[in-house]
Amino acid sequence: MTFSLQYGDGSASSGFIGSDVLSISGVKVQNQAFGEASILNGFTQNTFDGIIGLGEFLPNGTSLENSAYVLPIQNMFDQKLISNRVFSVALHTLPKGSTEDTTGGEIIFGGINPNKFIGNLTYLPVVNLVKGNLGNMPLLWSATLSQMAVAGKVANITNAVAVFDTGSSFFAIPQAYVTSIFGLLGAFVDPYAGLPWIDCNTINSGAANSIGSITFFLGPDNQPFTVPYNHWIEMTTSSDPAVGQIIQNLAYVNPGQVPAYLKQGLPQYCFLKITGLDLDLWILGDPFLRTYYAVFDVDNLRVGLAPQTGYSPNNVTLFASQTNPSQAGPTIGGVPGGSVATSSGNSQRSLQSSGVMLIIASLLLGVFGVSLI
Questions:
Q1: What is the reported pLDDT for 360?
Q2: Long-range contacts at 325-331 (CB < 8 A, ≥ 24 apart)
Q3: At 257, phi and psi to the nearest 5?
Q4: In Å, how far are 219, 284, 290 from 298, measured between CA atoms?
Q5: What is residue 103's predicted lDDT score, i.e. its pLDDT?
Q6: C-beta of residue 94 within 8 angstroms of C-beta of residue 362
Q7: What Cα–Cα distance (Å) separates residue 38 from each residue in 8, 12, 150?
Q8: How far apart are CA 84 and CA 100, in angstroms?
Q9: 20 to 30 Å CA-CA from 297: which of 62, 74, 89, 226?
Q10: Contact 96, 240 (CB under 8 A)
Q11: What is the pLDDT, as a whole number, of residue 196?
Q12: What backbone torsions phi and psi does residue 187 show, to the nearest 5 degrees?
């Protein structure tokens, strides 16, 4: 049996499907099918050894692309290695200059770790995306998205779907909104790496154009989930070889086209972790999942979210959901928005760590070279 896959970043792989024993933290999953790639395109810069795909599924625990392929979590459940078809992720940020997170990022198969999050989990139903002959079945770990708020402005969004993806380093959102956000925040997209650079002095400055948190309103109850600026704005220096090369290259561009905050010799440079998509999907990648503990519940087709332990609400503004379009507030791209407020929604906590759980410390940190998508 062969396979052929195209990934969201344009890379691709193909080959054949084999079977072996999958060993995770000393627990052995028998007869696990996996793809053995004989052709790889676009993977030359990656250092990981492979991908364990947990992002696409059918309710019976098989892969959408190939219903004969049984996903690892389904095999764990069938072989009675776990009691619930659920996995949970605590994704951490590496300290600057470090290659290993000693505080321990974590993935758990079969339950949750209450010590990794604050308060209660808010559960959001997965969106039914697949139509046609497969029926209305979930495709990705997703939730409805009704609004986004940034820099004091709010955008109402119609029929949008947000996807939770540990394999994305940035937020990836529809291009029309990217253009509006970059304009709102005064971002300059360099012609070399395509990164959207901003003035570091505008971050959390208190000024009218201050850039702080970004908030997404998710689920049927429009729950606000806020990501602080330090998770979606990268602060770096020219000592980073890639950044130094970009700043050096920009010195040869027409000076009138390059903002002063990108000239050579500055102590710090800042760029947004936002990129555009030609699809009508909102990918909430690592910036979101470094803020929120995430529970992916196959049995109940839902995603649970709660602030990670250590999450600080400092410099975070919550925007109340505005459902009455006649009450026009600030806008993004001319879309009526809402007013600034503090909001909290109904949440619940369930699916405690019952039965057997498989815990892998630091799995998402590149120690074992595995990326979840």
A1: 39
A2: 325/156, 329/154, 330/152, 330/153, 330/154, 331/153, 331/154, 331/155
A3: -100, -15
A4: 17, 19, 22
A5: 59
A6: no
A7: 20, 11, 44
A8: 30
A9: 226
A10: no
A11: 94
A12: -75, 145
Share of the chain above pLDDT 90, in %: 31
The total of other beta-carbon atoms located within 10 Å of residue 199's CB is 19
Which of 121, 139, 116 lies closest to 290 in space, CA to CA? 116
Note the Cα 341 to chain centre separation in Å: 25
Q: What is the pTM of this model?
A: 0.78
The answer to whether 343 and 319 are in contact (CB under 8 A) is yes
Edge to edge, the sheet with strand 12-24 lists: 2-6, 12-24, 27-41
End-to-end CA distance of the chain: 22
Tokens 């995430």 sit on residue: 294
Q: Nearest Cα to 196, choosing from 211, 181, 214, 213?
A: 181
Residue appearing with tokens 């304009």? 183
Domains of the chain by start residue, with CATH: 1-84+363-373 (2.40.70.10), 114-352 (2.40.70.10)
| Residue whose C-alpha is closest to residue 80's, from 121, 130, 27 | 27
Considering only CA atoms, which of 369, 352, 366 is closest in space to residue 88? 352
Following CA atoms 117, 101, 272, 287 in sequence, which dihedral angle do they give, to the nearest 10 degrees? Answer: -30
Residue 169: pLDDT over 90: no
Report residue 129 as tokens: 């995306």
Q: Are 225 and 260 in contact (CB under 8 A)?
A: no
Q: How many residues does the chain have?
A: 373
Which residue type is seen at 54? L
Residue 165 β-bridge partners: none
In 3D space, the residue among 19, 28, 20 whose CA is nearest the CA of residue 81 turns out to be 28
Query: Using the 8-state DSSP alphabet, how is residue 354 labeled?
Result: -
> CA torsion angle for 206, 210, 213, 219 (degrees, to 10)?
120
Q: What is the 3-state secondary structure (H, E, C) of 18-77?
A: EEEEEEECCEEEEEEEEEEEEEEECCCCCCCCEEECCCECCCCCECCCCCCCECHHHHHH
pLDDT tens-digit map of 266-309: 999 999 999 998 878 899 999 999 999 999 998 888 999 999 98
